[in-house]
Structure prediction request, 176 residues.
Amino acid sequence: MTTGRTARGAAGAKRAEQLRRRIERTRSQLGDSVHELAAKADVKERAMARAADVRDRAGAMTVQLRSSATQAGHGAQGATVRAGHGVQDTAARAAHGVQDTAARAAHGVQDTAARAGHSLHDTATRAGRSAEHVLPGPFRTAVRAGLRHPRPVLIVGAAGAAIVAAGVLRRRRDGR
Prediction:
C-alpha cells in the first residue's frame, strides 16, 4: 500500500515540475511580449517627436517666408502683398498636410500598440486557461479569478517581467 502512495507522490512531483516549467515558459513569453510592446511604444514616441520637428520646421519656414515677403514689400508693396498671401496659403496647406501626416502616423502607432496589447492579453488568457486545467483546486480558483480580472494579473506579470529583466541586465553588467 505504501508503494501506491510513493508512486502517486512521484507522479505529483513530476506534474509539479512540469507545471513549473510551463509557468517559466509563460513568464518568458510574457517578458518577450512586454519588451515588444515597449519597443512599439518607443516608435510612437519617435513618431511624435518627428512630427513635432516637422511642425517646427514648417513654422520656422512660415516665419522666414513672411519676413522675406515683408522686406520685398518695401519695394513693390502691391505685388508683394499678393505674393505673400499666396505664400501664406501654401505654407498653411503644407502645415496642414504635415499635421495630417503626423496624426495618421500617430494613429497607426496607437493601433499597433493596441494590437500588441490585445495580443499580449490573449496570450496571457490562453496561458491562464491552459494552466487552469492542470492546477490543483486552490490554484485553479486563483487562475479563474485572474481570468475574470486580467488587468491586475497583467500588471503583476509586467512588474515581474521587469524585475526579471532588471536581474538579467544586472547579472550581465556584473559579468555573471
About this structure: Residues 3 and 9 are 10 Å apart (CA to CA). The mean pLDDT is 77. DSSP finds four helices and no strands in the chain.
